[in-house]
Amino acid sequence: MTRDLTLMTVSEALDGLAAKDFSAVELAEAHIHAVEAARPLNAFVTETPEIALAQARAADARRARGEARALDGIPIGVKDLFCTEGVLTTAGSHILDGFRPTYESTVTANLFRDGAVMLGKLNMDEFAMGSANITSHYGPVISPWSQGTLAQRDASMDGAGELTAAARQPRPVQEWVWTRKLVPGGSSGGSAAAVAARCVMAATGTDTGGSIRQPAGFVGIVGLKPTYGRCSRWGIVAFASSLDQAGPMTRTVRDAALMLGSMAGYDPKDSTSVDRPVPDYAAALTGDVRGLRVGIPKEYRIDGMPAEIERLWQQGMDWLRTMGAEPVEISLPHTKYALPAYYIVAPAEASSNLARYDGVRYGLRVDGASLREMYENTRGEGFGAEVQRRVLIGTYVLSAGYYDAYYLKAQKVRTRIADDFRAAFERCDVVLAPTAPSAAFAIGERMDDPIQMYLNDVFTVPANLAGLPGISVPAGLSAERLPLGLQVIGRPFDEETVFKVAGALESAARFEEIPPFVASRA
Amino acid sequence: MSLDKATVAKIAHLARIKVPEDEQEHLAGELSRILDFVEQLAEVETEGVQPMSSVVAQKLRRRPDVVTDGNIRDKVLANAPDGAEGFFAVPKVVE
């Protein structure tokens, strides 16, 4: 029996390519089939099989010449927030209808420079605003952890038209029927679903308040938000510029380290990108955590946290202690204020960033009698409900008379939150916390109250406000047999220690659960 | 903090988003709840605290004030919903 090429990790695939066990084109073809098979998940906005094959052929040619690059031939998906030259880029929004950037984002350019192969653009919450991937103009993404079955039905009655029933031949089709649709988390929900369902080997995500780590936790994969400034934001559709950061989503910690090595780096086109060397992150995966102090923030024991999350967190501490690390209790006193500060800073910056969507230069235009009416019609129709809410809140908190009370106050609270971490990192080397306060929920649940949805990010938002690196590692299953993640937060630009501890957790947790929906079996 | 319908209409105008009148009431309720939620920041003592302006301690770099790109008019216009003769076209602005 031939090997299922879609079940491998990035590092296994690189070994296989180097050993000539298979070619990059074979690897790309297997994944193109998987992407097609995974359509019931609605994880992609755009599939790009021709680009994938062309890039794979180029990768094979380089390898044949002995010039293989770091990720040569690895098939990935790209969150639809990254501008890709000539390829539709929507940010999950109606307002970017038909937008084909004439330039390439720095992060995707770096990945392509190193030989990555793009299978397509991944669905996401509109403008990355959401924690369940239900706000996309292109419809919700369904988690591969949802329960469903392959059922047969007769498609001959579809689109009943002129033909009489007698003239129709029965046309049996196999279709995936969901019994309960779970959310993959968000906003990088398409990235999370595609990696977990084994139709891409790795994906790019972005994380403004948890949008890489929370979905990674929900679908049982690894997701890293690097230190603010580590990856260039150039060419990524901006949400909240002081918080946004790109990062990898993969099935193993090693794969995340390999991906970040290509994604990261100084970029003169992003004034906040940091000019410091990119280390060999995979080299940090020694498994040796002896003597490391692991901070356990007492304020993260929030009211109403499910017992199974508490247990998993305790399990994480025990694993690390067994391996020679030392858990220490720390205090992050302003934790409670992270979400409220975030819900001022992020909407304020979003209202400013999203001012550019005016129906003049790109995307949707809805006509009006005057220029002003054209703006208002375009933005009223082009933005979905959650985006409108946040732009309105942002406009309000920045408006005359309220700026000091809201925005300035929130930026001061943010300083306090960053100071909390600075003080904590005098006593510990990393912080260990749950990724999210619950496992994935069903589409339709928690959707009436925006605040309830915001609480998903209670453990992830602080790292964004303080600019710190954080990773989610799959660590166990809930009572409902859904993945739960543990989060490791590190000092600024100390992704190496974050990876090291994450790798140790990964080897202790031995999370090998596969979701019910796997592309190559669908 | 509670927003009324008139305030919602005013911010919607500032944000250049058309919000139909029959949605303003509902939106006022939602936005008020979000503002109530962020109101708890008032509890935090921030006397003398510097507002965070940059999350990473680094000075913004400077570069020579020279042209580094340009002559890409067609690329700039490539995605315009409406354009004519090398310009973006918009509804009449000046009467």
What oligomeric state best describes the polypeptide chains here?
heterodimer
Strand order of the largest sheet of chain B: 1-2
Global shape of chain B: flat
CATH level 1 class label of the domain at 5-42 in chain B: Mainly Alpha
What is the average of the pLDDT values of chain A? 95
Rg calc of chain A: 23 Å
Largest sheet of chain A: 11 strands, mixed
The number of strands of chain B is 2
Largest sheet of chain B: 2 strands, antiparallel
Say how many strands of chain A there are. 13
The fraction of residues assigned to DSSP E strands of chain A is 5-15%
- Computed over alpha carbons, the radius of gyration of chain B is 22 Å
CATH architecture of the domain at 5-42 in chain B: Orthogonal Bundle
**Which structural class do you get from the secondary structure elements of chain A?**
alpha/beta
Termini Cα gap of chain B: 41 Å
Strand content of chain B: under 5%
CATH topology of the domain at 5-42 in chain B: Histone, subunit A
